[in-house]
Amino acid sequence: MAHFRSLLLLALFTFSGVAVEATGPGDNGFVGLRDNYYRNSCKDAEKLIKKAVQAELAKNLKHAAGVLRMHFHDCFVEGCDGSVLLDGPGTEKTSHLAGFEVIDAAKAAVEAVCPGVVSCADILAYAARDSTVELNGTGWAVQGGRKDCTVSLASRAEAELPPPMFEVSQLIDSFARRGLSARQMVVLSGAQTVGVGFCDKFVSRLYDFNSTFFTDPSIDPAYATELKNICPQHSFNTSIEVFMDVITPTSAGVFEANYYKTLQEHKGLLTSDQSLFDDSRTRAVVTSLLNNRRFQKEFGKAMRAMGAVGVKTVGQIRTKCSAVNE
Ligand code: HEM
């Protein structure tokens, strides 16, 4: 019966001329998403969002990484539904995220032209793509059609987001639960070629690692010394920033394949980064993504798949991204 239903849906979408590109399990069958979604309802939406993102990032380019990360958090916690943008006590926003002003500015720009049409979850998906382009990425076509939710809970974020000490098996499981493959997990991790992390996320790799090793032996020794100088012993400091990608250490980052080179050189910042190269199941994928053209292409496809995770067909189009409509 279920098989029959999916065949019927496939037929419907083939006949209606809607492009459904199957790029991975997450992109697979969420039939409500499409390219050029606002073509008729708000034809300049993508242009307006891009312009607003560019203007905001001209003030602070570091927010580009923040917006990209925010889209990941949004999609991994109860699906891509704008939950990460809601204000209030105990919402997901309380976790360490940056760049909300970029989304607010983009929302204001589209609301001024077509009020109540473009969802915040979609704006975040477009803005994440536009942010990587501002950091020299090649970009990808973003699908629209997500509805906004009315609930956001920090406790859900804590339960759902993979923590930085996860190893490959746990990462594969976490992504598989969202219909994303192990390869897509490695590709999407490449987003961490831009931006920064704070000492508390990796200090346990530097000091008292385990009963055999004081420092995680998978870290290049010179890099470990460098990190120890920045993050003093036993300090779970949440204000000292370290570049996620030590090969292109500019304050905002450059969106390219160097992340995978850092892993090959044992300079991955987090356990979840370095284990991708150290584990035989994912090492070949890391090596293949050293090619920047391949990385950019696969990243776009994987982001389309991630952007389709848990999308809601019913919900609101919020007027303000930080608050539920009255
Ligand atoms: C694979 C599992 C992942 C884990 C365990 C993880 C964990 C982390 C952690 C701990 C940080 C540092 C943040 C801080 O210290 O406050 C970070 C930063 C970042 N992550 Fe991830 N992440 C993962 C996957 C992803 C994905 C899939 C994306 C996007 C597609 C992403 C994008 C980013 C970006 C852009 C930053 C830098 C943020 C900034 O500078 O504001 N991450 N991640």
From TrEMBL:
Reactions catalysed: 2 a phenolic donor + H2O2 = 2 a phenolic radical donor + 2 H2O
Pfam families noted in UniProt: peroxidase
Superkingdom of origin: Eukaryota
Name of the protein in question: Peroxidase
GO terms (BP aspect): hydrogen peroxide catabolic process; response to oxidative stress; response to stress
UniProt-annotated catalytic positions: H73
Cofactor info, note text: Binds 2 calcium ions per subunit. Binds 1 heme b (iron(II)-protoporphyrin IX) group per subunit.
Annotated residues for binding of Ca(2+) 1: D74, V77, G79, D81, S83, E92
MF (Gene Ontology): heme binding; lactoperoxidase activity; metal ion binding; peroxidase activity
Positions of substrate binding: P162
Keyword Protein biosynthesis: no
Signal peptide as annotated in the record: 1-22
Site (described: Transition state stabilizer): R69
Classification via SUPFAM superfamilies: Heme-dependent peroxidases
One GO cellular component, as annotated: plant-type cell wall
UniProt keywords, alphabetically: Calcium, Disulfide bond, Heme, Hydrogen peroxide, Iron, Metal-binding, Oxidoreductase, Peroxidase, Secreted, Signal
Keyword Repeat: no
Binding-site residues for Ca(2+) 2, renumbered to this chain: T193, D245, T248
Cofactor(s) the record lists: Ca(2+); heme b
Biological role: Removal of H(2)O(2), oxidation of toxic reductants, biosynthesis and degradation of lignin, suberization, auxin catabolism, response to environmental stresses such as wounding, pathogen attack and oxidative stress.
Cellular compartments annotated: Secreted
Record organism: Marchantia polymorpha
EC number: 1.11.1.7
